[in-house]
Write a structure and sequence with these properties.
Blueprint (H helix, E strand, L loop, with lengths): L22 H13 L5 E6 L19 H11 L4 E6 L4 H8 L5 E4 L4 E3 L6 E2 L1 H5 L1 H14 L7 E4 L4 E4 L7 H15 L4 E6 L2 E6 L5 H11 L3 E7 L5 H9 L3 E5 L8 E3 L2 H13 L16
Parallel strand pairs: 1-2, 1-10, 2-3, 10-11, 11-12
Antiparallel strand pairs: 3-4, 4-5, 6-7, 7-9, 8-9
Helix pairs in contact: 1-9, 2-9, 5-6, 7-8
The structure holds magnesium ion.
The site of magnesium ion has 7 residues, from loops.
């Protein structure tokens, strides 16, 4: 039997008979096809760097791919889809880079949240530690001034030290950051390592997992889903697991997620399927014949 699919559905992939998702994408689609009909909607939580935007050497230069930007915009208006962008970046920073309104944004690993109305809520304990974070940041700027390729980023409620451009200095810089935090952090701060970064943040119970759990609790009857690429996303994967949701890891190893996709382009393939077809599988949207 010849392939009768409409070539116009192929999107980016030229005149192949039809868009052919690779394995992780196919796997995720199969899970969503099975599970969405039992839910009122999909709570789709997306990381930014490495997920919607390719990783680049200079974090200031990171940009959402045009396709992902278009798809986030489409999904924002899709029935039965709740969209949240969850990032370690400062909230205003990540919101500016996605640049789609009426979407929930969580920044600084959940210290800051905008539920889509433009107002920013700040975790009270983090707000209380602002001056300590500032003091440590100033100190780090001084101490790391001579380190080529190392940058100290002011995210107001937190600080990130980047060393993607100085990979051989990773351990030494991390040690120095930890020493400064121990000496000047007044026992109010903690550090966490990510991909070529060290985060300095108030020692409060916020991480991406807590953010995703909170969103999932509010979106009753929705299937929670998280897509992310970093060690900072692991708490989110665990939270999604606990909530019975779907986790998609962007990378090249098995970290126990529901499925693994290779790149922000494959994330786009997944988002495109959700926007084109997945919405019809959501229980109550009703366009998929129940005999399927
Ligand atoms: Mg990321």
């Amino acid at each position: 039997m010849s392939d009768q699919h409409d070539p116009n559905e192929s999107g980016d992939s030229g005149d192949e008979a039809r868009f052919q998702p690779r394995d992780g994408v196919t796997e995720t689609i199969a899970v969503l096809q099975t599970r969405l009909p039992d839910h009122h909607g999909l709570l789709l939580c997306l990381d930014f760097d490495g997920t919607l935007a390719p990783i680049v050497d200079d974090p200031e230069a990171a940009e959402i791919t045009p396709t992902n930007a278009e798809l986030v915009d489409r999904l924002r208006d899709a029935p039965g889809i709740e969209l949240a962008v969850v990032s370690g970046r400062g909230l205003a920073d990540v919101r500016g880079r996605v640049d789609v309104d009426d979407v929930t944004y969580a920044g600084n690993y959940g210290i800051e949240t905008d539920y889509g109305d433009g107002d920013i809520e700040v975790h009270p304990d983090a707000a209380a530690a602002e001056s300590v974070v500032e003091r440590v940041r100033t100190r780090l700027e001084d101490e790391l001034e001579d380190e080529d390729g190392v940058a100290v980023e002011d995210k107001r409620w937190t600080t990130t030290v980047h060393f993607r451009r100085a990979p051989d200095r990773a351990e030494a810089v991390t040690d120095r950051v930890e020493a400064v935090v121990a000496e000047h952090g007044d026992d109010q701060l903690t550090t966490a390592s990510g991909r070529a970064i060290v985060e300095i943040k108030p020692d409060v119970e916020t991480n991406k997992g807590a953010v995703v759990s909170g969103f999932a609790a509010e979106a009753d009857g929705y299937l929670p889903m998280y897509v992310g690429d970093d060690v900072g996303d692991r708490s989110a994967f665990e939270a999604i697991d606990a909530a019975g949701g779907v986790s998609v890891y962007v990378g090249d190893e098995d970290i126990g997620a529901t499925a693994t996709v290779a790149s922000p382009d494959e994330v786009a393939a997944l988002l495109r399927w959700i926007a084109d077809d997945g919405v019809d599988y959501v229980g109550g949207n009703g366009a998929v014949d129940e005999t399927h």
